[in-house]
Amino acid sequence: MKKDDLVLITGGAGFIGSHTVDKFINNGYKVRIMDNLSAHEGRWPSYINKKAQKVIGDVTNIKDWEMSLENVSVVIHLAGIMDFHLEFSRFFQINTVGTANLYEAVVKNKLNIEKVVIASSQFVYGFGKWKCQRHGVLYPKEVPERLKKENRWDPICPMCGQSLTYLKNSEEQQADPPNQYAISKYSQELIGLKLGRLYNIPTSVLRYSIAHGSRQNVKNLYSGALRIFALQIMNNQPISLYEDGNNLRDFVSVKDVANANLVTATNPKSNYQIYNVGGGKSYTIAKLAKMIAKSLNKDLKISTGSYRLGDIRHSVSDISKIQKLGWKPTRAESQNINEFLRWLKKQNISSTHLDKIMNEMREKNTIRSFAK
Ligand SMILES: NC(=O)c1ccc[n+]([C@@H]2O[C@H](COP(=O)([O-])OP(=O)(O)OC[C@H]3O[C@@H](n4cnc5c(N)ncnc54)[C@H](O)[C@@H]3O)[C@@H](O)[C@H]2O)c1
Fold first, then answer.
1. Is there an atom of ligand 1 within 6 Å of 337 CB?
2. φ, ψ of residue 21 in degrees (nearest 5)
3. To the nearest 10°, the Cα dihedral for 31, 35, 41, 43?
């Protein structure tokens, strides 16, 4: 990839996309954004880099791809939808078909694309890898219902019933996407890696951990512990802590994610490879809540007794593979939280908006109670 090459960043008006736009422009590349602005009420956000070319286009429409791909050398494909929505088909229309359209447009028009980077998620690992002292490494699918009723959330060995030890997600382990979002992300990976290889379109897949930082969409409150807890704490409400709050997660700065996009896009060694992009440290969700309350200088009130359908117990990524490309996480989670809180305070979000979404998720049975 040469300086001055044109890079297409789909979803470039969004959270990770806009930081990725800045990263490429600051490193001397020309950038075109393709975004349908669905997450921005039809308007380009003011934070968009002035040097970027802007195309309003929808990844579900192959003609929009064809228009946006003109003279492009590299594609960073970030456009997509997330969360726990119940319109299952939308995940596949936008995430899956949107990605198939990219490869179809490239093959049909014989375009010379040097590299595609596909944005995937650590959630494709699902419940992940655990170890039983007696039976070795296992891939449990869920926690038995009877344990949930006792507020026990770790899976157990299906052979001996003993408790298991969680092992970090590593790229070579099998994926086991647990919900509509993760299945659609995994399908994007397969399209990118398989069709990419078949048609000689070098592709890398990045499985991001949960990204934190400024420009996060604060109207979308269907998921995202940082967004939800911050709003609840700011409004003196108890935070909604799912399960027992001891779920492990890892968080990565959005700026480090943008750098991972650049590092993989510019290194041919990453062709047809999958990489985890994480923060390198794990936190319980309860600890995250405490960190947010501390940053806001507020007391923490907690509401427990519920869980989310399709959620996973722990998700922590091993990042040693991408570190071999020279990438590393550079920012502490406390910095990410503070950067997000500064951004949140400038947004006009009412607690009523959050209450409405939480009620909707309860009504649709996505958030459920367990007997205590
Ligand atoms: N944010 C995270 O923590 C995280 C973690 C893992 C993976 N990811 C993946 O990274 C990507 C970017 O996530 P984000 O957090 O920046 O989301 P975001 O919602 O902030 O950005 C997504 C952008 O895509 C655009 N978009 C949505 N549907 C589109 C369509 N049909 N055509 C064109 N544009 C469309 C939206 O308008 C938005 O600007 C997604 O693919 C997501 O699955 C994000």
1. no
2. -55, -50
3. 40
119 Cβ below 6 A of ligand 1:
yes
The angle subtended at Cα 200 by Cα 194 and Cα 203, nearest 5°, is 60
Please give the distance, rounded to the nearest whole angstrom, from the Cα atom of residue 163 to the centre of ligand 1: 36
Of ligand 1's atoms, which has the minimum distance to the CA of residue 58?
Answer: 32
Cα 239 to Cα 218: distance, rounded to the nearest angstrom? 16
Q: What is the DSSP letter of 42?
A: T
Q: How far is the CA of 148 from the centre of ligand 1 (A)?
A: 32
Residue extents of the structural domains in the chain: 6-128+169-369, 137-167
Quick one: which atom of ligand 1 is closest to the CA of 212?
A: 3
Confirm or reject: Cβ of 62 under 6 Å from ligand 1. no
- Domain 6-128+169-369 fold: Rossmann fold (3.40.50)
- Report pTM: 0.95
pLDDT in tens, 114-134: 999 999 999 999 999 999 999
Give the residue among 121, 6, 2 at the shortest CA–CA distance from 55. Answer: 6
Q: Which residue's alpha carbon is nearest to atom 18 within ligand 1?
A: 14
* Average pLDDT of every residue of the chain: 94
